[in-house]
Amino acid sequence: MPIQDYLPLEQELDKLADLFEDASKSEFDEDPGLFEGRSTKASWNAQCSHAADELREELNDLIEKIEGRLHDGQFA
Hints:
This protein is an all-alpha fold. It contains two helices and no strands.
């Protein structure tokens, strides 16, 4: 079983992506002036959701890569 399919790890990675998304979304509320002319709150929230999804995918890819190196003995 690949390590990224290990349920407790999956849950922690989901939490991390959620924390990233929430922190990113809160930036709009902290300083809306930074987004003037570039993003509405709704569009910023959508961008944050997409970014969190990509982060989650990248984490899976990274874990798969590291796990492969581990099984190849590259950390001996």
